[in-house]
C-alpha cells in the first residue's frame, strides 16, 4: 500500500504542490495531520475496545447458553433411553402378566377335574410366574420414577429450541461485530502506515521512548475430568482477573493489539500453569488425566504512559544495555490479582455452583507465585526490545 499517496490525499495536495512547499510549512502541515490522525486513532481504538468488551461479554453468554444446550441434549438422550427401556420392560411385564393369568386358569381347571399332579405342577409354575412378574414390576416402577424425576420430554425440547435460537442470535451478533473490528483495524493499519511515512518525512530525531501500559486481563480455565470410579466428575470453570503492567516494545508501540497477540500464547500457557499449580496446592490435586483448557476472554487497557528514557540509557552507556533493560523491566513490570471466580459441578454439563473458599486460597497463591507469568512476559518483551535499544544506544 502506497502510504505516501494516501498522505497526499489527506493533505489535499498533489505531488508537485507538496514538493514545492517550503520546508517549515511542509513540516507544520505534516505535524497538524499527525495530530489529527493520532486523535482519530485514539477514538477508533476506544471504539475497538468497546466492541471487544461487548464481544467478550457475548462470548461468556454464549458459553453459558451452549452449556445449557449441551445439558438439554444430554437430558433428552437420557430420557429417550429411559423411554425405550420402559417400553421393553413394559412388554416383558405384559407377557409375564399373561403367563400368570394362563397358569391361574390351568390351576382352576386342574382343581375342577381333580388332576392332583397337574394342579401341583401348575401351582409351582404360577408361583414362579408371580415372582417374575413382581421382579419386572419393580424394574418398571424404578424406570417410571426415574422418568418422572425429569421435566416432561416436550418441555425440555421447547427449552432446547429457545436456547438454540438465543445461541444462534448471539453467534450472529459476534460475527457482525468481528467484521466491524476487522474494518476498524484495517483503518488503524492505514493510519499507522501514514504516521510512519510522516515520521520519515519530517525526520524526527531518535529518542528512546518507553510506553508502559496497564491491562486488565481475564483468563478462563476450564477443567474437566469424567470419572466412573470416583462416582463424581470434575467440571470446573475458573475466571482469574488481574492487572498486568508491561513495557510495550518499541516496534509495537503504536500497535497494542498486535503486541497482545504476540504475548497471548505466553500469557495463556503461563497463567494456565499457575492456575493448575495453585489449584493443586490450595484445594485438591487434579488427576493427571484432567483436561485443562485456558483462554484469554478479556483484555482492556486501563492505564497508559510514555516515558523518555534516553538519558537513563545514554548515561549508563558503559553498562551492558541488556542489563539496564533487565533492571528496568524488573523494576517496572507488575502483576496484581483483582479477583478469582471458582465454579464447580460434580456432574458433567450440570449447573455449577460458586466456591468462595477456593477463591480466597487461590488468590493468595497466585499473588505469591505471579513471577511464573511475569518472568515469561519479561523475557518476551526483552527479546523484542533489546535489538532496537542496542541499535539506538550504539
Write a short abstract of this structure.
The chain is an alpha+beta fold and 394 residues long. The chain contains ten helices and five strands. The chain folds into two domains: 1-204; 207-394, no CATH class.
Give a written overview of the molecule.
The protein has 394 residues and is α+β, with helices and mostly antiparallel strands. It folds into 2 domains: 1-204; 207-394, no CATH class. It contains 10 helices and 5 strands. It has helices at residues 3-11, 15-20, 23-113, 116-148, 153-202, 256-282, 310-314, 321-332, 356-368, 371-393; strands at 209-225, 234-248, 291-308, 334-345, 353-354. It has a 5-stranded antiparallel β-sheet. Strand 4 (334-345) and strand 5 (353-354) form a beta hairpin. Helix 3 (23-113) packs antiparallel against helix 4 and helix 3 runs antiparallel to helix 5. The radius of gyration is 35 Å and the shape is elongated.
Structural domains: how many: 2
Number of helices, where a helix is a run of at least 4 consecutive DSSP H or I residues: 10
Mean pLDDT: 88
Q: Please report which band the strand proportion falls in: under 5%, 5-15%, 15-25%, 25-35%, 35-45% or over 45%.
A: 15-25%
Q: Which stretches are poorly predicted, pLDDT < 50 over at least 5 residues? A: none
Strand order of the largest sheet: 3-1-2-4-5
Helix content: 55-70%
Structural class: alpha+beta
Radius of gyration: 35 Å
User: Helix and strand string, N-terminal first?
Assistant: HHHHHEEHEHHEEHH
Major β-sheet profile: 5 strands, antiparallel
Amino acid at each position: 500500500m502506497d502510504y505516501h499517496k494516501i498522505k497526499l490525499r489527506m493533505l489535499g495536495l498533489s505531488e508537485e504542490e507538496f514538493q514545492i512547499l517550503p520546508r517549515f510549512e511542509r513540516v507544520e502541515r505534516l505535524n497538524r495531520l499527525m495530530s489529527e490522525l493520532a486523535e482519530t486513532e485514539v477514538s477508533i481504538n476506544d471504539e475497538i475496545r468497546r466492541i471487544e468488551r461487548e464481544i467478550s461479554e457475548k462470548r461468556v453468554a454464549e458459553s453459558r447458553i451452549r452449556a445449557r444446550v449441551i445439558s438439554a441434549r444430554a437430558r433428552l438422550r437420557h430420557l429417550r433411553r429411559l423411554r425405550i427401556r420402559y417400553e421393553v420392560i413394559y412388554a416383558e411385564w405384559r407377557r409375564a402378566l399373561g403367563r400368570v393369568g394362563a397358569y391361574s386358569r390351568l390351576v382352576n381347571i386342574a382343581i375342577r377335574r381333580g388332576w392332583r399332579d397337574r394342579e401341583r405342577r401348575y401351582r409351582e409354575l404360577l408361583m414362579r410366574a408371580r415372582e417374575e412378574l413382581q421382579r419386572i414390576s419393580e424394574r418398571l416402577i424404578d424406570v417410571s420414577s426415574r422418568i418422572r424425576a425429569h421435566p416432561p420430554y416436550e418441555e425440555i425440547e421447547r427449552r432446547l429450541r429457545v436456547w438454540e435460537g438465543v445461541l444462534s442470535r448471539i453467534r450472529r451478533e459476534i460475527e457482525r461485530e468481528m467484521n466491524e473490528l476487522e474494518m476498524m483495524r484495517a483503518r488503524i493499519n492505514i493510519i499507522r502506515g501514514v504516521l510512519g511515512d510522516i515520521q520519515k518525512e519530517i525526520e524526527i530525531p531518535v529518542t528512546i521512548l518507553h510506553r508502559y501500559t496497564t491491562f486488565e486481563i481475564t483468563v478462563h480455565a476450564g477443567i474437566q475430568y469424567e470419572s466412573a470410579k470416583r462416582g463424581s466428575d470434575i467440571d470446573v470453570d475458573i475466571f482469574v482477573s488481574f492487572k498486568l503492567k508491561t513495557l510495550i516494545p518499541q516496534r509495537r508501540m503504536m500497535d497494542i493489539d498486535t503486541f497482545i497477540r504476540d504475548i497471548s500464547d505466553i500469557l495463556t500457557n503461563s497463567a494456565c500453569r499457575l492456575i493448575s499449580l495453585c489449584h493443586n496446592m490450595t484445594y485438591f490435586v487434579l488427576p493427571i488425566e484432567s483436561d485443562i483448557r485456558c483462554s484469554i476472554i478479556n483484555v482492556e487497557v486501563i492505564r497508559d504512559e510514555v516515558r523518555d528514557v534516553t538519558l537513563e540509557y545514554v548515561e549508563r552507556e558503559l553498562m551492558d544495555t541488556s542489563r539496564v533493560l533487565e533492571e528496568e523491566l524488573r523494576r517496572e513490570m507488575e502483576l496484581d490479582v483483582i479477583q478469582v471466580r471458582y465454579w464447580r459441578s460434580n456432574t458433567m454439563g450440570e449447573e455449577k455452583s460458586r466456591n468462595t473458599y477456593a477463591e480466597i486460597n487461590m488468590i493468595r497463591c497466585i499473588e505469591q507465585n505471579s513471577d511464573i507469568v511475569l518472568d515469561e512476559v519479561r523475557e518476551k518483551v526483552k527479546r523484542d526490545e533489546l535489538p532496537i535499544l542496542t541499535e539506538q544506544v550504539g
